[in-house]
């Protein structure tokens, strides 16, 4: 049986190990757009990265990243960060996603940092900030509202 997010044992193990890379490997779109994650050197949690790729360009004249790619990057970062920082292994589903584009996202490495604003019994709110060269000059901010689900026990 292939390990998946719905396998409670696999999810608990990878979460305990902080293995976000294992999660990203199971998300084809995350691999396609070039998303990775590293531990913040200052101890502030995870920092997500999206490497520049030609197929992520939306405006070839500037050139600039496609807004949908930036949004998907931030959505993925917020969801995975919540999965790691939640009180227990949970499978969040997005209910609402809002994004503010603040400046042009050039075709360079883009980073994102997430902040869990609230985690209740059934709902969570996460804020995501994306930047490129300087974290104090974000290219976009977003807020996610998610329903928290429970993974199924492994039947194997």
Class based on secondary structure composition and strand pairing: alpha+beta
Radius of gyration: 16 Å
Classify the oligomer: single chain
Summed up, the helix count is 4
End-to-end separation: 8 Å
- Which blocks of ≥5 consecutive residues have pLDDT under 50? none
Widest β-sheet, arrangement of strands: 1-2-6-7-8-5
Helix share of residues?
25-40%
Total number of strands: 8
Assess the beta-strand content as a share of residues. Answer: 35-45%
The biggest sheet amounts to: 6 strands, antiparallel
TL;DR?
By secondary structure, this protein is α+β, with helices and mostly antiparallel strands. It has 4 helices and 8 strands, in the order H-H-H-E-E-E-E-H-E-E-E-E.
Account of the protein in words:
- The chain is of the alpha+beta class and 156 residues long.
- 26% of the residues lie in helices and 35% in strands.
- The protein is built from 4 helices and 8 strands.
- The strands form 2 sheets. Strands 1-2-6-7-8-5 form a 6-stranded antiparallel β-sheet.
- A hairpin with a 4-residue loop joins strand 3 (57-59) and strand 4 (64-65).
- The longest helix has 19 residues, at 67-85.
- The chain is globular.
- The mean pLDDT is 91.
